[in-house]
# Entry
Amino acid sequence: MGYTLNDLKRINTHSNRGMGLENDINVSNQFYLINDIAVIYKKPTPITISKVAYPSRYEAKIKEGYFKTPSTTDYNGIYKGKYIDFEAKETTSKTSFPLSNIHSHQITHLRKIIKHGGIGFLIVRFSTLNETYYLDGQELMHFLDTNNKKSISLSFFKEKGYLIKDKIQPRVDYLKIIDNIYFGGNL
# Structure
């Protein structure tokens, strides 16, 4: 599903500020693609369909399916010659991000991305506070390796992460932070 620049302007109106994080990132990624900035996509969840009903000749309804394999992370792509891979999560907590929201196979995957020179990270939206943070994968791994906590405090995100301020275009400009960390840009 491609968007024109006019579509993005219409989608990113003030009235749509309540969209979920995933939608905001998808629209941001479309902006990056249209403007030839980066190529980043949401990965499909691998599902196997096992039962289908055909109520009529031209209709099919999926009745049963299962996850083929555990998915890795939500998004991947390329930016300035670097592979990017990240997970996006929302929480209603005002104080912390529960680690139960991210699966161990996703952590393992992000570790491998970082080990092989890619840029891995986490984007977390504290939806009740309307605050979205970028947490670099190396900071995430350091936290996981040195703590036995069941959540990451909001104060950790404020200290070690980066607040992503809402914009019109792109809505969630996480590439600006990547520029700062990896390519010597200025925030």
Remarks:
- Confidence is low (pLDDT under 50) at residues 7-18.
- The beta strands are 39-42, 47-56, 59-67, 75-79, 82-91, 96-98, 119-126, 131-136, 151-153, 162-164.
- The helical segments are 5-11, 21-34, 104-115, 137-146, 154-160, 174-182.
- The chain has six helices and ten strands.
